[in-house]
Amino acid sequence: MGERKNELLDSATEYLLKNGIADLSLRPLAKAIGTSARLLIFHFTSKEILLEAVLEEIQRRVRISFDAACLRNGGKNQASPMTQFWRWASAADQLPYWRLLYEVQFIALQHPKTYARYLRGVSIRWSAAIEAQLPVSLRSRTLAVLCGAVFDGLMMELITTGDIKRTTSAIDLFVEWMRNESKKMDPSAASQERGRPRVRTLKRTTPS
Fold it and tell me: CA 20 to 30 Å from 111, out of 42, 75, 135, 183?
């Protein structure tokens, strides 16, 4: 991707994070980011492809954060990758990313032919990323899909209600269940778990 196209993509991403995509038109978008609708079409071909590119960029940023959360889990006394990722994702300054992702996800579902490639690709990539972080004894694509669905459901609940305490408690409960299931499948995990402090429920003020 050329430098100018990258700049336009970054600007379009920031615009959509602030304004959403309801009644999105290329002309107001182009004016807001200091370019023209013609130039956007030149670089992205259509509004739909521009939206796909924005979503890919947001997914890229989120996956980088997901991987970073997993890398920080190297110490044996640290929280699980899912807990760490939730703590990052549920912060007030990250919620606009999730609002936009889910908003476009619903639009893509309403127009599956137009967004089929995006819908298929994002599901496969996220399932693979989650599966790679599961305990070996539980590692499967099916469980990865379950983890993704739990996260999506609780994030939608957080965005809708703003209830950080209840949704974080639900994540902690799910992670605890996963740990118990892992110990049942892998007895050696039980001995490793001894001495690890229990993860406390995250306390944070309700985001506005």
Answer: 42
Residue 157's closest CA among 178, 171, 143, 176? 171
Q: Give the span between the Cα atoms of 15 and 9, in whole angstroms.
A: 10
Sign of CA dihedral 80, 81, 84, 85: negative
DSSP symbols for the chain: --HHHHHHHHHHHHHHHHH-STT--HHHHHHHTTS-HHHHHHHHSSHHHHHHHHHHHHHHHHHHHHHHHHHGGGSTTSPPHHHHHHHHHTSTTTHHHHHHHHHHHHHHHHSHHHHHHHHHHHHHHHHHHHHHHS-GGG--HHHHHHHHHHHHHHHHHHHHH--HHHHHHHHHHHHHHHHHHHHHH-HHHHHHHTTPPPPPPP--PPP-
Token couple for 102: 């889910």
Rg (CA), the chain: 19
Between 204 and 38, the more confident residue is 38
Task: Flag whether the pTM goes above 0.85.
Answer: no
